[in-house]
Amino acid sequence: MVLAFDTLGYAKRLRDGGVPEPQAEAHAEAARDYIMVELVTKNDLAAAVESLRHDMDARFENVHLQLDVLRRDVDAKIERLGLQLTIRLGALMVAGLGALAVILRLH
C-alpha cells in the first residue's frame, strides 16, 4: 500500500524550525524517496500475519499427520513385541515343565 507523504508540509515545518529552504526541500524529498518506501501499514502487517498463520497452520497439520503415522507405527511395534514376549514366556514355561518332568522321572 502506498502512503501519501506531504513533502510540502514537511519542508514547511522544517523551514519554520529554522532549516534553510533548499535543505528543507532536499530533506523532505529524501524522506519521501528513501524512508517512506520502507514503511508498512497496519493492513500490510495484518496481511503478513495472516500469511504466516496460514503457513504455520499448514506446517502444524503436516506435523500432526506425521505424529499420527509415528504413533501408529510405535503402537504396532509395541503390540508385536508383546506377542513375541508372550510366545517366549510360553516357550520358557514349556521348557521348564519339561525339565521338571525329566527331573521328577529321574528321582
From TrEMBL:
**Chain ranges passing through the membrane:** 85-104
**Can you say what this protein is called?**
DUF1640 domain-containing protein
- Keywords assigned: Membrane, Transmembrane, Transmembrane helix
